[in-house]
Write a structure and sequence with these properties.
Structural class: alpha+beta
Shape: globular
CATH topology of the largest domain: Butyryl-CoA Dehydrogenase, subunit A, domain 2
Number of helices: 22
Radius of gyration: 30 Å
Oligomer: single chain
Number of domains: 3
Helix content: 40-55%
CATH architecture of the largest domain: Beta Barrel
CATH superfamily of the largest domain: Butyryl-CoA Dehydrogenase, subunit A, domain 2
Strand content: 5-15%
Largest sheet: 6 strands, mixed
Length: about 625
């Protein structure tokens, strides 16, 4: 089977016998038509139909390496910048379809499986079979276009202790025994979004394990068919109340169920196991394979789409009620614009600085994506707040579709009109704003975004620890020395740099031609310009100290002189693009040295690597 259509997705779901407990009802099938799931399931089906739409299929699919048939782009192993761009474009198409509200579309975990399978050798450290297992499983999901959910964390029984210590270790899903064919899992995990209507459950590690003998039974990664014997979902109350789309425009389309997963002695064959009894491999599961990077690449693409929706909605709201001219309103709109452009810039930076990982997969730069995933959980919380503030009491004057089309229609048209909309259209807009910032659906969205990658407070620790701050500390430390250098010393340093480049002119030129794609003639010209820049800066060191000014232009200052002195104020941050990677560096570094300032230089990482010494 190649990339699925919506009907194929629904057909497979209809045949599944997934065990779901919801609102006192036990389901062992029929999920696709149950009121809690039927609308969101059909929204997912629309995404699969897009894979066959001539307008989208060239972006959403690529030829399978195994069969040549079209398969979903989220499975594409990126080797080139064009591959990365296609992956992003495919995720963006799906995210735009749901206004960014669907957080567990297939491309999220498909991206993880792609990265994990590419790291087959890493899994083989413990046993080569595990590497084979993850590769074959990835190929199965790719060729059958399966929809996966995953579960990561233990139930919240007592957060003062680790999951393995709760209720004597019995609550958290763990391996209770092994047999000749596989493992048996007992316990529970949270929180499987879309679990009731997925095809497969990925039981992946999340909680950091201590690598003790007691942790081995909790140290595993495997995949389970969603209707496996002994597997059941305890779903939360649905937020799709079966109301018309006019009344609940988002909740009636995009209400993804969240569920606790209960493993009642679920047997998992060994061929579906990827890690067993190895806490160290579990702790490195996402980072050492680059899975977290590719997953975050998809997430930032989705949150960009979501922020675009918020900006469009906010703009329609402010225009409809005639408030956009007020400065405080413009400040709120500017906040959303700033968030959007920040996400776009971070996404672009991640792709621009992409590099092959140890497994040969072109992987986006982690620092920009890590920044985005630490920022957005907090930034998104402001969006519902801004919408509530600007919508104000109008968000409580929101009749239903039955009112708009019923006896109250004339009153609605007369009394609920806005500056730019008639009464019925204004009500439709305000229902959408309401479902984005006030409804139960919107509350779940805010909570979901806040904890998407975990507790933002706890995420800050690894973020700070992983960020290389030494160059900036060094620049500050160096400033104490550079600011005291006399002019003749600064001049000597600059002359020395110019001479060093001169002695290696041809090497610099050929490196520029090779890495920046410049004609050799243009590269040689750039080298000459860089030499000239350092020499000019060397001359300027003798002019920087200051000047004497005669003050005799007034009688009471006759015979007096003014002395102007210049002092370096602090380290300089130099940011240079890709197009002139040598000369533009010279334009930042040379004046800084001439003035006695230290420099923290941020360059385009893909150029001049060979000459960095």
């Amino acid at each position: 089977m190649a990339a699925r259509s919506g009907s194929e997705f629904l057909g497979r779901l209809a045949a599944a016998r997934v065990h779901v407990e919801i609102q006192g009802e036990t389901l062992t099938g029929g999920v696709a038509d149950h009121p809690a799931f039927r609308n969101v399931v059909r929204s997912y089906a629309e995404l699969y139909d897009m894979q066959h739409d001539p307008a989208y299929r060239d972006i959403l699919t690529y030829p399978s390496p195994a069969t040549g048939e079209p398969v979903a782009t989220a499975f594409l192993t990126p080797r080139t910048p064009e591959d990365l761009a296609q992956r992003r474009q495919a995720s963006k198409l799906w995210a735009d379809r749901s206004l960014g509200m669907l957080g567990r579309t297939g491309d999220y975990l498909n991206s993880a499986l792609m990265a994990l399978a590419s790291a087959q050798d890493w899994f083989g450290q413990a046993d080569a079979q595990y590497g084979e297992n993850i590769r074959r499983y990835y190929e199965k999901v790719r060729e059958e276009d399966l929809l996966c959910t995953h579960t990561l964390i233990p139930p919240q029984a007592n957060r003062a202790v680790s999951g393995s210590q709760q209720a004597g270790g019995a609550l958290m899903a763990h391996i209770v025994r092994e047999d000749d064919n596989g493992i048996v899992i007992r316990g529970a995990r949270m929180l499987a979004t879309i679990g009731p209507f997925a095809d497969e459950l990925l039981v992946f590690p999340s909680t950091v394990l201590r690598n003790t003998p007691e942790d081995k039974q909790y140290s595993f990664a495997c995949a389970v068919p969603n209707d496996a014997t002994g597997l059941r979902y305890l779903a939360r109350e649905p937020l799709d109340y079966g109301r018309p789309r006019h009344d609940h425009p988002l909740g009636s389309r995009f209400e993804e169920s969240d569920a606790v997963v209960i493993f009642d002695d679920v047997h998992v064959p060994y061929e579906r196991c990827f890690v067993l009894g190895d806490p160290e491999l579990c702790n490195g599961f996402y980072t050492h394979t680059s899975a977290v990077v590719h997953m975050t690449h998809q997430v930032v693409t989705r949150t960009t789409a979501k922020t675009e929706y918020i900006l469009g909605l906010l703009s329609l709201l402010t225009q409809a009620i005639g408030i956009e001219q007020f400065p405080h309103v413009q400040a709120d709109v500017a906040e959303v614009i700033t968030t959007l452009e920040t996400l776009r810039a971070l996404l672009r930076a991640a792709e621009a600085d992409a590099a092959p990982n140890e497994f040969g997969v072109l992987t986006p730069a982690w620092a920009p994506l890590n920044t985005a995933r630490n920022l957005y959980p907090r930034l998104y919380q402001r969006f519902p707040e801004i919408l509530r503030k600007l919508g104000a009491s109008g968000l409580m004057a929101t009749p239903t579709e039955a009112d708009v089309t019923g006896p109250a229609a004339a009153d609605i048209e007369t009394y609920l009109q806005s500056a730019t909309l008639g009464g019925a259209e204004r009500v439709r807009l305000f229902r959408l704003v309401w479902d984005t910032c006030i409804s139960a659906f919107s509350g779940r969205q805010a909570l979901y975004e806040y904890y998407f990658f975990g507790d933002p407070v706890r995420m800050a620790g690894p973020y700070v620890a992983s960020y290389d701050r030494e160059p900036y500390q060094a620049a500050v430390r160096a400033f104490g020395s550079t600011r005291r250098l006399p002019a003749f010393e600064r001049q000597r340093v600059l002359r020395s740099i110019a001479q060093h480049i001169t002695s290696r002119k041809e090497e610099f030129a050929r490196t520029l031609a090779q890495e920046a794609g410049k004609p050799l003639k243009a590269a040689r010209t750039e080298v000459e310009r860089a030499i000239f820049t350092f020499n000019v800066a060397a001359e300027e060191t003798t002019r920087i100290p200051g000047e004497y000014l005669s003050l005799d232009w007034q009688q009471f200052t006759s015979g007096r002189w003014g002395i102007v002195r210049r002092f370096p104020l602090g380290p300089i941050a130099g940011i240079t693009p890709f197009n002139f990677p040598l000369n533009l560096v010279a334009h930042k570094v040379a004046p800084a040295i001439a003035s006695g300032s230290s420099t923290a230089l941020i360059t385009f990482s893909a150029t001049l690597t060979a000459s960095s010494g």
